[in-house]
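Entry 12.
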Amino acid sequence: MNHEDLNHWSKRAADWSRDYHASLRQRPVRAPLTPGAISSQLPTTPPEMAESMDSIFADFERIVPPGITHWQHPRFFAYFPANASPASMLAEQLANAIAAQGMLWQTSPAVTEIEQVMISWLAQALGLPADFTGTIHDSATTATLSAVLTMREVALAHQGNLTGLSGQPRLRIYASAQTHSSVDKSVRVAGIGQENLIKIATDATYAMDPAALAAAIADDRAAGHLPAGVVLCAGGTSIGAFDRIAECIAVAHDAGLPVHVDAAWAGSAMICPEFRVLWDGIQDADSIVFNPHKWLGAQFDCAVQFLKNPAPQIKTLGLRPRYLETAGREEIVNFNEWTVPLGRRFRALKLWFTLRAYGLEGLRQRIRNHVAWARESCEALRALPGVRIATEPRLSLFTFALKDDALTEALLNKINDDGRIYLTQTQHDGAYVIRVQVGQFDCLREDVIQVASVVRELMR
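Predicted 3D structure (tokens):
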């Protein structure tokens, strides 16, 4: 295949993509397959000779679409969406064609400088102070790991990277049980250890109790441990819980600890000023992560980390051997020093296209619609006999259940086997509950309202 062939097949792929998205409402959201159904259709050995693109594309059409969970389906209400607006898809196509490696400013100045401007645009859109800067990671997990590694190194006076953790005091990281499992993964990967992630008690709203946080920090110091940082939750994955951001940051800062706020899903909603009360006090955070790919329409992967002061993270993660120097540009921004990987994709391009193609007001209206439709769907489910709303809507996320776990799980299996909508589960207050999360970029009110009608039909 050469570039002339690419020109032809790119047009063919664009036509296929248009038809695919137009047909999504007629497809089941989740592939009704068993493990091994896809791999059994592929040869067990790689081809020795080149094959025609006609054959390759035909196999793609035959095997892949029927074997996909359709994340861009307008009735995808599971997890949180990994959205892909048309403008974002176009930007990704161009970024793939350029195929830049943006590890240094000099390897692609446009990659670095457009990223800097997009961070500024997003900070303004979310109402953050002008002193925040930041970078784009692949996912919130990497951003949280970067923050936790920085907490570790600041607590150890940057000796962990040099001498290791052997012989050091036991480091402690504090979070509530509502934080994402990426926090657990981060303390493991950072060498801090799962046992040193202290889950702080929550109040009746499932927000971290600031007094309990203060007590845990004091107790650990009295025991000879070394508190290193606090991770707060702004829109938890399970039920959408929000910690008391302002109060918990005040406790952490009084104790001399930095704070990272995980707003991976809900952060996008803060482009709407009326929702910012949910993360009141965010301006005092040291680090914040949110995923534009979850609710702003930027194609996965795209996680933005804002930093009040990037210097500690750069000192933690940055390496500049001679072969990565830019002659005469010692103070230039090289974003590979802000994160774990050296290699970096041109992720800022899809943000630039998306923000311009829809505008903040267009994106706000989508989010406001999703929140309103989620509430309407919640009320429709509440009216069904035998349905219990387990947690009320937080933005566009709520949960419901039947009278016992077995019935609830059986209903969820029926829903997902049926294929018209896709929902997932969580554990809340010891019970199995079903999550409904509205946020797919192209969903309509009629799609969201179908949740209650499908539940009503399948409960019979």
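Annotation: Residues 342 and 455 are 47 Å apart (CA to CA). The longest strand covers residues 226-233.
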